[in-house]
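Intended use. Records like the one below are meant for learning the mapping from a protein sequence to its folded structure. Do not use them to infer anything beyond what is encoded.
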Amino acid sequence: MRSRYTAFVRERADYLLATWHASTRPATLDFEPGVKWLGLDVRSHSARDADHAEVEFVARQRGKSGAALRLHERSRFVRESDRSLNRWFYVDGDLR
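Structure written out for the chain above:
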C-alpha cells in the first residue's frame, strides 16, 4: 500500500498499472493536475487467507482549489505467483 501511495505522489502510472490486478486494471491512468499529497495513514491490514488481504487507509491531499480532501478506503489485494516470485496486486476497494 505504501508503495502505491508513493507512486500516486510521484505520478508513476507505470508502477500503479503494474501492481493493479489484470481483472480490474484500467487501460490508462490520469492524474489530477495540481494535487498535493499530504500523507498516508494505514489504519489496519488483515490477511483473509494466504493469498488475499485487505488494507484500510486514509490518504490526505490538497486539490488545486486549495481544499483538503481525504480518501478513506478499504482495499483488497491478491497474491499471485509468477515463476519463483510472489507478487501482491491491488484488486479494488470500498470507499468509507
